[in-house]
Amino acid sequence: MEEFAPDHNGKLLLLVDDHIDNLELLSRILTQAHYRFRRAIDGVVALKAAKLLRPDLILLDINMPGMNGYEVCRQLKASPQTRDIPVIFMSALDGGLDKARAFKAGGVDYITKPFEMAEVLARVSNHLSLRAVTTQLQTSLAQQLRQRANELADEAERERGLAQVIDKIRRSLDLDLVFQTATAEIRDIFDTARVAVMQCVPPQGLPVEPVPLQTLSTQFLPRHHSGMGNTYRVISEDVAEGLLSSLGCEFQRSTFRDFYTSHEQDYPLELGKVDTVSVMHDLETRLINPPVLEVLEKFQVSASIIVPLCKGDTTWGCFCIFHSDGPRQWTQKEIEFAQKVCIQLGVAVQQAELLTQAQHQSVQLGRTLVDLNGIMDNLVDGLLVIEPTGQITRCNPALLQMFDFGQQELLGGLLEDYFPEDMVEAVGRVQSATLPTVTLDIALGSERQGQAIISPIVKCLGPSRQASTVLVEGCVILIRDVTAEREVIRIKNDFLATVSHELRTPLTSVLGFSSLIESKLDSAVIPAVPASEKKATKALRTVRSNISIIIAESERLTALINDVLDIHKMEENRVDWNFQWVDPSLIMERAIATVTPLAMEKKLTIVRDFPECMGEITIDRDRMIQVVINLISNAIKFTDVGHICCSASLVEGAFQVSISDTGSGIPEAEQKRVFEKFIQVGDILTSKPKGTGLGLSICRQIIERHQGRIWVESELGKGSSFSFSIPVALKTCSSALEAECL
Amino acid sequence: MDATKVLIVDDEPNILILMEQALESLEDDYGIELLTADNGEEALEQIRRERPCLVFLDVMMPIMSGLDVCQQLKADPDLKDTYVVMLTAKGQELDRQHGLEMGADLYMTKPFRPREVLETSLEVLNLITSAAI
């Protein structure tokens, strides 16, 4: 502020008095003090002069003809142009000076006549000084107001700038463009030398490891100074003309970090996690490691703001604002501005990464789709995909060919418009009941046979594959041309039938004629030869026994052929099963009756261990008898001494039968294999084979057809026990059944 | 229908011989005449001419199969009471079913014991005789 000094040279005063003598006197006084002045002899002149001249001070007489001093002063104060001019009233003591009126009219002071020269000068000087100070104060206030207005405008400008930058950042998903825009805009708004974006890069091709937020403050150290710390590469930069570009340069985190963190204030981020911003106002005031200083000087950095650039929770890089020509006192606003921009850049990085991922996935999906299409187009089987509505969403060339559709367009059409009703119905069943798969025979074009496998496309809603959490989104139908396959099966069956026929015809002759020979021997030849013909008698006995062997072996051969056909049919699932209600004890009795002669031959006892009447169950009666006969005759074959125990029971919805013997038993290793085809216990070479080797295999097929299981328990040397168990629906012992039992 | 005549039809000469031998005692002990035919056509002719009461009929034969013979026979009101025993190597369930559907009265599978054939014949002849009385 200007110091008070009573130097009023050149100040213009207006003197108003109706007495010319007074004016003269005042003029003299003021001239000596080097004031300039004008004079007015009445109020009207004074007002005009004041407006025109804008004096620095007015000395005003009160008692004047026409307009008195008070009125003049009031009018002066009423006009904006003259309002600020201080007025000093002058009046003779006897002139009736009314001080109160004077001040009320707007005067700043008064002087009584006759004048004291010193007093006049002092008062004039004081009021001029006072006016000067007032004016100055007013000016300064106006200036301050203007400055504040400018600041507000600046701030608004910055906010607009920020909004613009953010808008631009958000408008693009191209990260390079985002960074270019951000660096250029920020450099423009900050009016600074260099703005750069740096990214953490793996040091030696290693993946980027996220840096904990608090440890990151930025660091500039050329690579050759580095240890194994993280490297930052400048990936985008906007730099003032004439400065060295740092684009592509790499810097290491180092002791430089300590310099920053130990000296700088920490600015908590307004949003998100607390993070550290490094701010340097003046390079000159810092103690900086020489190598770091070298870098800073190379890029002419004299002040900086460095904000970590975070992608989600991890540090991705940093955003740097550098000043080059001398110190710069960064304002809090500027730092916050940089932080806000940086948050937006972080969002941009994340979005760009998501976009890249999405693009990558889309490319992969595309490739998978191409692969899938290739696979489907080249499938030999016909493929059809349908929606739950029955609309066809996919099919392959093989399918079109199979059904002779030619180039017909099936996509978008309904299943029922192109395919037979039973297939539509099966698809409906699969979709509604979430059956795993349904297999269906279907007629193809050109009299070919197809087999359709219909599977639901399911989407699991919950963690487990329960019906309630599974959503059927359609069906996949795979159709295989089984014409050739069926033909092969047919040919095989024909072949087997033929072979069986061709084998049986000669076998009929062998068995038939040997039987006839046997009976002729017994009835006609042997009785006709006298006992005295010893040689002939002996020969006849041999012939007789040989014939018996031929008959037995023919019968075994017959059984083998029958078994082979039987098991073949079962495996082909071509057996007509005849399920009917029957009492299992009847089955046991029938079977035992059939095998009793065999047991008697070997003097073995058959023990019955089942009630006379058990209630009815549904099974294939003849097949079940076949199983039990098989098991008992096996037991007889392998037992030389002791008994065969046949037990049967109906317990907990299961029909269980066990045939136990006191025979040779089966080694453990062979127990598992006895149900396989052509497996016989014992060494075939040393012990005489006693069966076809198919009996147990047939038994297993029959039991499995009844949803049951068959197993063996055996101890070598003590005997074996063959058992089976089938689940049954029990009908209690009815009177009809009882009648049959009787 | 002639209760003293039994016809055997098979294209295999050996089987014909076997059958004749198996049924020898019918001729010897019961005065029944055994006739033979080695194909379906001839069988039908003989059946129409000789009117046997019992026919042993092979299924797989040239010219006309046993099933066809059986079908025609059973379709003819005059001949439908002829007792037909199908005699075949095709022992499969389906064939058995088929044979019975064609009207066969009995089904015997090869190979068989000669005694079974004889016993069956006697049973059938007894049955027929008693029915005639």
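qc> The interface with chain B takes residues 497, 500-505, 507-513, 515-516, 519, 554, 558, 562, 565, 569, 574-576 of chain A (CB under 8 Å).
qc> done
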